[in-house]
């Protein structure tokens, strides 16, 4: 092996162990203010946060969460607000519920996407429950949190990219089925990953 190549290999061998443990910094730290207008449960909320963080984290966006009171007493560089209407921890039997309309909305004004979203908890939970059976029912709070986290992630993509665009597959599809809400995983499409990365690198 020529001396020059041997030297390069030696330098790489010395450098890689030292750098391997250094994490890549996130593209952005986004604080999500959670404003619950109805009952929820710690397990459902925790799972919702975990699911949304995992989905957005694939793009390099790091999420943190705060209550309205916490947000009022602190300064944040990038803040969005998610309001949750209705009962976020409903257990059976549940009343019949109008399934028409979206699970959630992101507010806009004059065509501009605002950092405010609203989730209809009962609509999400009713849809998720229709796809649950067997062991799913024994961990319903976790399943509801998973569904709510995916719906929240969908709206966060709209807010962070400031567009109403949807994808042909993944969490950013225009309509998510009950199985989409409760299945083993639901991720961002490659186009959505690229859009988030481009948006944050341009800031």
Provide the CATH top-level class.
Alpha Beta
Compute the number of strand runs: 5
Integer average pLDDT: 85
Backbone CA Rg = 20 Å
Characteristic key phrases:
203 residues; alpha/beta; Collagenase (Catalytic Domain); five-stranded mixed β-sheet; globular
SSE order and pairing:
Elements: H1 3-20, E1 28-36, H2 42-57, E2 61-66, H3 68-72, E3 79-85, E4 104-109, E5 112-120, H4 121-129, H5 135-138, H6 140-161, H7 178-182, H8 190-201
Parallel strand pairs: 1-2, 1-3, 3-5
Antiparallel strand pairs: 4-5
Write structural notes for this entry.
The protein is built from eight helices and five strands, in the order H-E-H-E-H-E-E-E-H-H-H-H-H. With 203 residues, the protein is α/β, with parallel strands linked by helices. It has one domain (24-201): Collagenase (Catalytic Domain) (3-Layer(aba) Sandwich), CATH 3.40.390. A five-stranded mixed β-sheet has the order 2-1-3-5-4. Strand 1 (28-36), helix 2 and strand 2 form a beta-alpha-beta unit. Helix 2 crosses helix 6 and helix 4 (121-129) crosses helix 6. The chain is globular, with a radius of gyration of 20 Å. The model is unreliable at 3-23 (pLDDT under 50).
Quickly describe the structure.
This protein is an alpha/beta fold. Helices cover about 45% and strands about 20% of the residues. The chain has a five-stranded mixed β-sheet with strand order 2-1-3-5-4.
């Amino acid at each position: 092996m020529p001396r020059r190549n041997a030297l390069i290999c030696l330098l790489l061998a010395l450098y890689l162990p030292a750098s391997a443990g250094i994490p890549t910094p996130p593209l952005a730290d986004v604080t999500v203010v959670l404003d619950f207008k109805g009952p929820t449960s710690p397990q459902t909320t925790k799972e919702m946060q975990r699911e949304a963080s995992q989905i957005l984290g694939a793009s390099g966006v790091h999420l943190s969460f705060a209550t309205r009171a916490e947000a009022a007493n602190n300064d944040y560089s990038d803040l969005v607000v998610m309001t949750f209407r209705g009962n976020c921890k409903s257990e059976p039997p549940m009343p019949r519920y109008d399934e028409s309309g979206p699970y959630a909305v992101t507010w806009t004004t004059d065509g501009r996407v605002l950092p405010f979203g609203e989730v209809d908890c009962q609509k999400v939970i009713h849809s998720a429950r229709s796809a649950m059976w067997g062991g799913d029912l024994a961990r319903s709070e976790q399943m509801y949190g998973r569904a709510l986290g995916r719906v929240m992630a969908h709206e966060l993509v709209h807010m962070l990219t400031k567009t109403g665009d949807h994808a042909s597959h993944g969490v950013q599809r225009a309509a998510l089925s009950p199985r989409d809400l409760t299945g083993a995983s639901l991720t961002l499409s490659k186009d959505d990953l690229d859009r988030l990365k481009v948006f944050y690198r341009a800031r």
